[in-house]
C-alpha cells in the first residue's frame, strides 16, 4: 500500500469482512487491488496479532503487509500497539476491561505487569507491549514499577 491509498473494507455482515480494496489516491478511482483479508481478520478475531502471522494471511510480503496494516490502522480498522502488533478495536476494548479488572483487584488500584499478564492470559512480552501502549494512550500511568488507571481513561 502506498501512503496515499485508502483502504476500504466491505462487510458481508456485522463483523464479517469479505475483501479489502486499496484505491490508489494518485491514480484516482478505477485502479483497485484486492488484498485477501478474510483469513487475516479471522486470525485477528482469534487473537493473532503479529505481523509474521498476518502477512501470509493477507497474501503479502512482510513490508507490503506492514504498510497495508499501518494504513488500515490510520483509518481505524485495526489498532497498531507496537511496530509489528495489530489488534481489532474490539479486542483492545476487551483488554481494557481486563485492565480495569486488574486494577480493581489490586491494592490501591496499583498493579504490575505480571498481574495484567496473568489476568489477560497473554504472554509476558505482549503484556509489556500492551501496557506501554495503554501508557501512551493515557489509559494507564506508570510509576515505580506499577501502573494505575488514569481518572480520565478515554476507553
Query: Could you state the order of secondary-structure elements as H and E?
Result: EEEHHHEEHHHEE
Arithmetic mean pLDDT? 77
By secondary-structure content and strand pairing, the structural class works out as alpha+beta
Q: How much of the sequence is in beta strands?
A: 15-25%
Question: Largest sheet, if any?
Answer: 3 strands, antiparallel
Global shape? elongated
Strand order of the largest sheet: 1-2-3
The low-confidence runs, each spanning 5 or more residues with pLDDT under 50, are 8-34
Rg over CA atoms, rounded to whole Å, is 17 Å
Query: How many alpha or pi helices?
Result: 6
Outline the structure in words.
This protein has six helices and seven strands. The longest helix is centred in the middle third of the chain and has 17 residues, at 89-105. 43% of the residues lie in helices and 23% in strands. Helix 4 (89-105) packs across helix 5 (113-120).
Please specify the SSE layout and strand pairing.
Blueprint (H helix, E strand, L loop, with lengths): L5 E8 L2 E8 L8 E4 L2 H8 L5 H8 L3 H13 L4 E4 L2 E3 L1 H17 L7 H8 L3 H13 L3 E4 L2 E4 L6
Antiparallel strand pairs: 1-2, 2-3, 4-5, 6-7
